[in-house]
Amino acid sequence: MPAAGVVLIIAVVAIVLALVYYLVSTIVQLRSITNGLDEVIASVGEIVDKSAPVEPVVADINDNLDAAVSALEGLLVKKAGMEDAVGLVEGLYPGAAAAGLRDFPESREVTPPRIGEVYTKGTLTLARLGREAPIATGNPAGPALRNVESGSLNARLLYPEIRQSRPELMPRSPVIGTDAPEQHEQRDDIGKPRKRMRSA
Amino acid sequence: MTLWWIGDIVLLVVVLPIVVYLLGGVLKAATSITPSVRRIADAAAAGSKDLDAVPLLLTTQDQVRQTVAGVANYGGSLDVIIDDA
Fold this sequence. Notes:
- The structure holds two protein chains of two kinds.
- Chain A is an all-alpha fold.
- Chain A folds into three domains: 8-52; 55-111; 114-165, no CATH class.
- Helices cover 56% and strands 0% of the residues of chain A.
- Chain A has helices at residues 3-51, 54-92, 115-129, 152-156, 162-165.
- In chain A, helix 2 crosses helix 3.
- In chain B, 88% of the residues lie in helices and 0% in strands.
- Chain B has two helices and no strands.
- Chain B is rod-shaped and about 115 Å long.
- Chain B folds into two domains: 1-52; 54-85.
- The chains are: A mainly alpha, B mainly alpha.
């Protein structure tokens, strides 16, 4: 065999060896990928199975909450009126009045009244109901929405104006007793003989 | 004879390097996919585990129903007690 034929055989063998090496390595990698994808498919199947009931359950929860929101908004507007209802919402959640009430689109155009006015009316309503008014806190776990230490002003607003801001102008309470500077019901006949009715 | 040598040189200098280069690229691509698939499998397993809490939604659903029913009862009472605006 000529030398050129030997070199040709060597070249072909080298090419075949290269093909075998790389193709076998590629096959090994593809098998590893296949195994990994099998695990992925199994996990994705679990995700699909576990998330299947989520949609109807969440839809039911949303339906219930929607009904509650509609009922509460309707009750609030019915009892407090649109303007005070928006003011109450604004008082509890500052900035929420801009979004308005969901079932009352016209509420977005209402200018919310001062919080104190609505607060006073709410206090009156709860006082009529004979309940402790938990208006100072929106969420028991969260911070107080109102200044609970100085919140008595809202309660004092229930009384006539003079008691709220100008108590110094109110007449002082009378001092009574024997040491009082002014003795009321001074009688001129004290120590004198008792008047007697004229006998018939 | 000269053509034999030319063929040998072409095989060794041109064909063999090209074959090695192309197959090396395929192997490199296949090798780079493997860790990505592994990470996807881990993420999918973690996502599946996170959804183990989905059955608690049934409890939430029941709680929401009870709460809404309570709110409706209170609302009905308030509707009777409080005068309309």
